[in-house]
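Field reference: sequence -> structure
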Amino acid sequence: MAKKPKKQQQTGGTPATVALTAAGVTYTVHSYDHDPAHPSYGEEAAEAMGVSPDRVFKTLVADVDGALTVAVVPVAGQLDLKALAAAVGGKRAAMADPALAERTTGYVRGGISPLGQRRKLPTVLDVSASSHPTICVSAGRRGLEVELAPEDLAKLTEAVLAPVGRA
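Structure field:
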C-alpha cells in the first residue's frame, strides 16, 4: 500500500509558499528544470527564468558569533561576512556548515529559502533588493523560485536591510 503524501505535497506547496499564502502575500512561482551539473544554483535560476541576476537573490546561512544567521544577497555577487556580522551586532561571521544549515532550515543546499524555515533565524536582506519592484528567492527546492516584493520578504522574515552583498 502506497504512503499517503503529506498535505503540503498534495497542494504542491513548500513551507515557503505555504507561509506566503498564509500571510496573504502576492507572489509568483517560477519553476524550471534544475541541472545538477550547473556550477551556480542562483545563476542557473536567473538564466532559466530570463531574469537579471541582480534581481535573483540567494539565501546563505552563516555563523555569526556562534548564532546561525541568514543572509539574502544577489546571485550576481558575494556575501560580505564582515558586513553581515556588523548588521546583526556581531564581531565575526563565517559560512555555516552546510549540513547544519540544512538541518536547521529544513531545506537542502541550493534550495534554502528565507521563508518557511524549520527554525526562524535572524535574517539580513541586502539593501539592493529595495531598488527592485520584485525579487526572486528560492521557494524551498532546487528549480523553484518565488517572485515577490522585497518589502514583503523583509516583513515576513523580520529582516534587517543592510549592505551585505558585494560585487
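Note: Confidence is low (pLDDT under 50) at residues 1-11.
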